[in-house]
Amino acid sequence: MSNDEPISKTLLKSLAVRLQGQVYKYWICQMSHGTQQVRRYVIPKDPKTPGQIAQRAKFAQAVLFAQELDIDARLYWAKIGVRKKKPLPWWNAVISSYMKGLISMDEG
């Protein structure tokens, strides 16, 4: 087999070892529901649409906001996160609220 030939999916599945991660730049091996799964590696699309760019900018602002919180604010958000249906760490509670527009940078 030359260096440019992909490893066959059948060969990968027949191996008696557990593989995880990218295998020879063509295949991804992962565990799913207790069984070894092998799939082709796909380069994800990054269309850079105006909506996506705006969302990424807003997320960057949310991260900056969360990083600048003092210990008292972090404890407050930890309490808020526990009250959710599915409890969240303080960081996730802040980011989620910021992304939903419930808080803004000037509320620090």
Describe the protein's architecture and organization.
The chain has helices spanning about 10-15, 50-65, 70-80, 90-100; strands at about 20-25, 25-30, 35-40. The chain is about 45% helix and about 15% strand. Helix 2 crosses helix 4 (about 90-100) and helix 3 packs across helix 4 (about 90-100). The protein contains four helices and three strands. It has a three-stranded antiparallel sheet. With about 110 residues, it is of the alpha+beta class. The chain folds into two domains: about 10-40, no CATH class; about 50-105, no CATH class. The radius of gyration is 22 Å and the shape is elongated.
Low-confidence parts lasting 5 or more residues at pLDDT below 50? none
Query: What is the H/E string?
Result: HEEEHHH
The helix content is: 40-55%
Q: Biggest sheet: strands side by side, in what order?
A: 1-2-3
Distance separating the two termini? 59 Å
Strand elements, count: 3
**Major β-sheet annotation:** 3 strands, antiparallel
> What is the 3D shape?
elongated
Mean pLDDT comes to: 81
Rounded to the nearest angstrom, the radius of gyration is 22 Å
- By DSSP (H or I, 4+ residues per run), the number of helices equals 4
Q: What is the count of distinct domains?
A: 2
Structural category: alpha+beta
> What proportion of the residues form beta strands (DSSP E)?
5-15%
SSE layout:
Elements (H helix, E strand, L loop, with lengths): L8 H6 L6 E3 L3 E6 L2 E6 L9 H18 L3 H12 L7 H10 L9
Antiparallel strand pairs: 1-2, 2-3
How would you describe this structure in keywords?
alpha+beta; about 110 residues; 2 domains; three-stranded antiparallel beta sheet
